[in-house]
Amino acid sequence: MRPRPHPEEAPAVLPALIPLADDPDPVVAATALVAVGLLATPGTGSVVPLLEAVLDDPRELVRWGAATALVRLNGPAAGHRAAEELRSRLAGLAELGEEIPFFDGDVRGYAALSLCLLDDAYTEDTFTALLAALPEVSGTEALPVAQAALRLAFPERALSEETPFAALDDRRRRLVRVLAESPGTWLLGGRRFGNFSMLVRSYGLPGDVEAMTAYMAGTP
Prior knowledge:
Helix content is 52%, strand content 2%. By secondary structure, the protein is mainly α. The chain has a two-stranded antiparallel ribbon with strand order 1-2.
C-alpha cells in the first residue's frame, strides 16, 4: 500500500477518482472508493458525505469500498455503519475481490486489518466477528484475519512463555480455543503453513494446532 501523497498532490487526483465511485462496474467503483480514502484527508471537501452515502449502495463490493475508505480516512471516527459493513464482509466476498488492486484482492483480509483502526468501542464486536471468520479461512487468507484477532487480543505485548492457559483473560482464551479447534486454518494447500505458525508464535502462543490443543488442555 503506497503512502499518502503530499497534501498538495491529493486534490489533483481526487477529481478524477470521485466520479468513478458511481461506475456501474462494482470493481471500478470499489477501487476508486478505496483510493479516495487513501488519498484524501479528513478535511477534503465533501468526501466523507459521499462515502457515507455509498454505504447504501446495493452492491456488496461497493459498500466494502466505501466502508474501507471511511476507516482509512477517518480511523476511529469512521462510525458504526462503516464498522458494521466491514464486519459483515468478514464472512465472504473472496470471490468478488479478485480484481481489486488492493491487498492482492483479499477484501476480507483488508476488512479485517481496517477494523483494527476503529475506536475501542467497536473492539468486542469486531473480535467476535474475527473469531467467527477464522475457521473459514486458510493459507494466505488466514494471515490477515489471524493478525487482526491477535492484535486485538494482545494490544500491548506478547505472552511470556510461562503463562498458562488458565491465566489468560477471556478474549485470549476464546482466541486460543478457536485456533485449537480450527486445524484447517493452519494449512496451506493441505500442508502446515509456516508463515501462519510464525505469526501465532510471535504472540507467545504455541506454533501448531496440536501444541495449541495441549496448551488449552493444560498439558505439557
